[in-house]
Amino acid sequence: xxxxxxxxxxxxxxxxxxxxxxxxxxxxxxxxxxxxxxxxxxxxxxxxxxxxxxxxxxxxxxxxxxxxxxxxxxxxxxxxxxxxxxxxxxxxxxxxxxxxxxxxxxxxxxxxxxxxxxxxxxxxxxxxxxxxxxxxxxxxxxxxxxxxxxxxxxxxxxxxxxxxxxxxxxxxxxxxxxxxxxxxxxxxxxxxxxxxxxxxxxxxxxxxxxxxxxxxxxxxxxxxxxxxxxxxxxxxxxxxxxxxxxxxxxxxxxxxxxxxxxxxxxxxxxxxxxxxxxxxxxxxxxxxxxxxxxxxxxxxxxxxxxxxxxxxxxxxxxxxxxxxxxxxxxxxxxxxxxxxxxxxxxxxxxxxxxxxxxxxxxxxxxxxxxxxxxxxxxxxxxxxxxxxxxxxxxxxxxxxxxxxxxxxx
Length: 409
Ligand SMILES: [Zn+2]
Ligand SMILES: [Zn+2]
Hints:
Elements: H1 6-10, H2 18-32, H3 42-56, H4 59-68, H5 83-88, H6 94-108, E1 116-122, H7 124-129, E2 131-142, E3 157-159, E4 168-175, E5 178-185, E6 194-196, E7 208-219, E8 228-231, E9 247-253, E10 260-262, E11 265-273, H8 274-279, E12 281-286, E13 292-297, E14 306-309, E15 325-332, H9 339-352, H10 356-365, H11 395-408
Parallel strand pairs: 1-9, 11-15
Antiparallel strand pairs: 2-7, 3-6, 4-5, 8-9, 10-11, 12-13, 14-15
Helix pairs in contact: 2-3, 9-11
The structure holds zinc ion (ZN) (2 copies).
């Protein structure tokens, strides 16, 4: 749908008279008519030109367009029928009947108002639990002053003298086939059958005005970022008694400090240290509702392991069923160690791999500049454990892990 300015399309200014607009239109229409202009975009251009003329040649529509832009004339949904050309197959007077007639039929037909879209930003919790929000909406409504009639209250709306009130006039046309009569929309009243003595000062005759309204939106629990809530009939008012458009509330959800979201599951990252991972631990996990829940991390839990706390996620938007709280384990290796921790971990390292000390010795202490006194006391750990070094279930190792866990926590 073209949204270019209608005046621009016809190459006229906002002050130009109806006659000037008409002349500009004829010139443009001749230039871009698909029968003559074989450029690929000629037909599209031609449609645009028609659409612009439809609006600007109709004083009521032009007034609406001047005040409300494309929204005031329903975004320019004037799809012109092209059958007129098939019948006449030529140019000249045909333009008059073609556009006058179709325009006349259109101007009286009820048209649905255009839709509006507005964005609301929600806190993570508000999207999860649902919330009632008051929002400000700027929309086109029936003019409150003239109730849509377009006349200044107290002044007359007269029956059109040109068409006698029926909105149509008979015209004699000349074409390549000879003369014939054609019924067209009345040029005086644009098919409405009435004329206004004095236009309403609020809407300048358009019958509509833009107003700011406060509207309450019920955001349902479980809504997701990027979803829209439809408020039926809360959009712009329709013309000629057509129904109003809808108002769509586009939801933008702010991220949470602790949780992430995957559909209706809450995602939480649980940091634990290496000793807790090896020995197992009970941890308090926060929930979105505020209180905590206890999660048992079993012994031997690997980094990246996932645990599910059933039913502690977010309500499904349709059925209220709750998703899960999914906990991802982040095993954190301590970056800094105090003396006790270092000693315990060295003990563990040798317990897990009796060659540990030697590798360290080769890699670290092969440098000649290192003082002999800094060598680790290998004897301290020698022959301490003859069991399978990877079997963490031996009593001695358990004691060691526990001491490490205490030292790290
Ligand atoms: Zn008014
Ligand atoms: Zn008339």
